[in-house]
Amino acid sequence: MKRYVIVGTGGRSEMYFKALTDTHADVGQLVGLCDLSQTRMNYYASKLTAAGKPAVPTFPADRFDEMIRTTKPDKVIVTTRDCFHDFYIIRAMQLGCDAITEKPMTTDEVKCQGILDAIAKTGRKLTVTFNYRYSPKRAKVKELLQAGTIGQIKSVDFEWLLDIRHGADYFRRWHRDKANSGGLMVHKATHHFDLVNWWIASSPQRVYATGSLGFYGDKAGQGPASHSDRCHTCKADCKFRLDLAANASLKALYLDAEPDNGYIRDQCVFGAGITIEDTMSLSVRYDSGAMMSYSLNAFMPYEGYRIAFNGTTGRIELIDVESTYISGTGEPQGETLKKGSRILVCPHRQTAYDLDVPLGVGGHGGGDTKLLDDLFRDPVADPLGRAANHIDGARSILTGIAANRSIARGGEPVDVASLVRLPTA
Ligand SMILES: NC(=O)c1ccc[n+]([C@@H]2O[C@H](COP(=O)([O-])OP(=O)(O)OC[C@H]3O[C@@H](n4cnc5c(N)ncnc54)[C@H](O)[C@@H]3O)[C@@H](O)[C@H]2O)c1
Known about the structure:
By secondary structure, the chain is of the alpha/beta class. About 30% of the residues lie in helices and about 25% in strands.
């Protein structure tokens, strides 16, 4: 049985924790937890004690090496804030372990090169957990494209919408600082750019981008006239309030843990100091010759995406309305805007047809469940090639890193090859 440790015991680590202590405990053993916050580690460790399961030791972040030496894991699961992924991936490999990291693999080109160099030097393996690839409807689109249903892909039109509930959350936490997250072009769009690389089996070559902060932050004039710098102490009548004290797990993981290291989970989305964009648009040229226009907007009334692949023998559209929550009324959109997905195939000179959209069960459209099987159980042959390695991880962030550079330079083109030396296989 393989041994695992988790570094970074916030919200996302729960999926891995639950797998290794419950659903996948027959194939993997959790042998250590590591974080800056003892309270957050205790939150998870105490779940085991409460369930009468064997205890797992906890290690403060400055005792990471000691954890590796004493617990002897095969693999380190990295679920810290994005800008620290590289540190733990590289250190794990130097200490003889493989690593599994959450997306994004890292946040900038220097850290990306550091990870690639460490892999070349140590020969260790890195898996990047792209759960979006595992959702059945996206796999269906991959199947269609791989089978040549619309010929060679010449262009892609891709629009992603984050709503004022989920989208707003990126402006409350560490993500709001580009130094922590790489901005939404890296932190969020790594999923989207990975999907495109995988769907069209190509790599980004050149990127042109623009972006702005036009809704959140203290300059756009969208917030209450007077407000505190965090929701917990704020008296304003504000539809964006996040009440940490009212949610048992948010309270235990974040509010109660504040004395540990001052992590504030409910900063004002209309406060000062936000350095990421909420509106982004870019053009990408791929090695295959295909091009993509992409946009991401983080203050939309509903959540979802639309993507169209334009091929030499037709067009495929995937439309996905993931949430129809409307802040302010809390009412769904009803018949006007139904939650659900559509895959539309439009071959040249034939009648267009809808495909049944396969449904997934569990988090992220069924992606999380299948991903966990792939991570922890014996590998099974996958004709769709969903397991992602360090090269996929790098390609997926390089579009966003190039976009950040292009935004900073007023929309100038940025060649991806100028950012890192990417291995060929
Ligand atoms: N694949 C997905 O769909 C998905 C969804 C959510 C989050 N994520 C990713 O998971 C990761 C964690 O996100 P989250 O929402 O749980 O954030 P979080 O803030 O809730 O948790 C991050 C944890 O890392 C710890 N941490 C921060 N810096 C550290 C350091 N230097 N050393 C050790 N621990 C440190 C924090 O104390 C915290 O407990 C991020 O990389 C995020 O992008 C992925």
